[in-house]
Design goal:
OB fold (Dihydrolipoamide Acetyltransferase, E2P); single chain; elongated; three-stranded antiparallel sheet; 1 helix; alpha+beta; 5 strands; 65 residues
Length: 65
């Protein structure tokens, strides 16, 4: 799950595993595997960074120590 902000300044959390693709139009538009689309305040680069960080966190949680 990654924290994001709607254009109305409302924060929300998105399941990063549902992201199909991200576009800059110039706003950042996220299309989900469900077909839903949303525009967020964060830049495309920032959304990508958060998705990568989320993936790293998951790998740390499931790797045996």
């Amino acid at each position: 799950m990654i924290p994001l902000t709607k254009l109305s300044n409302q924060p929300f959390v998105l399941n990063a595993e549902l992201i199909k693709f991200i576009e800059s139009t110039p706003d950042t538009m996220i299309t989900l595997t469900t077909g839903d689309r949303m525009i967020v305040k964060e830049s495309t680069d920032e959304v990508i960074r958060r998705v990568i960080d989320y993936g790293r966190l998951l790998r740390r949680l499931i790797e045996p120590s």
